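S.,

Sequence below, as promised.
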Amino acid sequence: MRARLPYRTARQLHLRRFTRTHHPAHVHHERLEDHHMAVARLAHEVVTSPGGKHGTDVDDLHSLAIRSTLDQIAEWLTAASRELELLLESLSAEMRRENVYAIAMLSRAHDDCCQELAEAGDAMRTGTAVHVRVRLARLFAAVGRAEQAHYYLRTALTPAA
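The prediction came back faster than expected:
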């Protein structure tokens, strides 16, 4: 099932089934970082792009572009959440216990990203382009917090040289 706008809840982003492939933890770290960067890049593009003039075809094209971008962000966030699950499965129980704070921060940041995306979808339906941009700016900040928590987790798991 593919997530579509408008999202009713942030949890609708996690509805697709997927297959599990076991990889070493560093592969999951790299993929998670790539997913975070893709979401941040897309959100940044929408926030910094010039808006269309109201009541023109340019405005309609701009809102279509934003909808398309929100769908892409949803796909990348879903992939990031899956990679996080796979990363956690690849860690031993002892490693998860030692890094519970970083894992909790990362999970919370992902939930914040999903929530902001859902609210951006609602703003797309009921609000203005400014409301959407504000939500995507907040999503950008949440992705930054997620990447910071991922850095904490990654450095905690890296063996000392």
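Residues 17 and 143 are 23 Å apart (CA to CA).

Coffee later?
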